[in-house]
Amino acid sequence: ASFHWSWGPKGVQHWSKSYPFCGGVFQSPIDLQTPLLQYDPSLVPIEVHNYDLLAHEQLTLGNSGHAGEQSMYILGLPNRYSAVELHVHWGSPNTPAGSEHTIDGKRFAAELHVVHFNSKKYSNVSVAADKSDGLAVLAVLIEVRSDGGLFTIDQKVQVPAFNIRHLLPLRLDQYYRYDGSLTTPPCYPSVLWTVFRNPITISHTQVLCLQGAEREPIPVPLDGNYRTPQSTDQRVILVSFREGELGAAI
Ligand SMILES: *[C@@H]1O[C@H](CO)[C@@H](O)[C@H](O)[C@H]1NC(C)=O
Ligand SMILES: [Zn+2]
């Protein structure tokens, strides 16, 4: 589909005309509301493998669809999932908070998505994308600390090598889990979501570096590049931690 879609209030309302799933059920993101949470003791800590390598190398490997020994993959989910892409949703100087998932209505500065496909069952991400057990996304909420620089979203920056493991919170055992969708067209309801409970804090400069590492950057409009929370459609949100249990100190 080469239909040109865009973010912002005007763009989003047209998604479902060309991509019917965008107007369907079990869409993402959602607001992670306390009354919908259900503790599930079977949710084991997420294990990441080969994340200690450089983002641009690993994601290029991943795009070839080969789930070899060197590929980044995660365990702790019902299948083995291999990483294929990472990208960030953020706001803009006009709307500085641009995370997609919100927690009890609180929107964070930005949100990192590491997209994986079920490499045990499917040969590549294209085949997996519209299957109900096809995709898994690790989502990290991001808080941004000022480092003195001006935050200009269209600034060209050099992309330094960075270690993807450092973009995940320390605690991989505390997370929200639910069945949802891609948050951009075609919005397939094929994503097993893991949203880590603890946000990471990075500098504005690091936000720009993340943006530069994206494979196919889409121009970010002034309103940001995030989708607003969708209907929960009677879904429950499983959590791996008990209410009242402390999050990480950092
Ligand atoms: C994905 O796999 C399918 C089936 O094996 C194949 O037909 C298709 O060309 C592959 N796509 C890419 C992008 O590798
Ligand atoms: Zn995303």
Automatic annotation (TrEMBL):
This protein's UniProt keywords: Glycoprotein, Lyase, Metal-binding, Zinc
Cofactor(s), by name: Zn(2+)
Pfam families: Carb_anhydrase (PF00194)
Any GO molecular function: zinc ion binding
InterPro entries: CA_dom, CA_dom_sf, Carbonic_anhydrase_a-class, Carbonic_anhydrase_a-class_CS
UniProt enzyme class: lyase
SUPFAM superfamilies attached to this UniProt entry: Carbonic anhydrase
Domain Alpha-carbonic anhydrase: 3-241
Catalytic activity entry: hydrogencarbonate + H(+) = CO2 + H2O
EC number: 4.2.1.1
A Gene Ontology cellular-component term: plasma membrane
Function statement: Reversible hydration of carbon dioxide.
Family per similarity comment: Belongs to the alpha-carbonic anhydrase family.
Protein name, UniProt field: Carbonic anhydrase
Organism: Paramormyrops kingsleyae
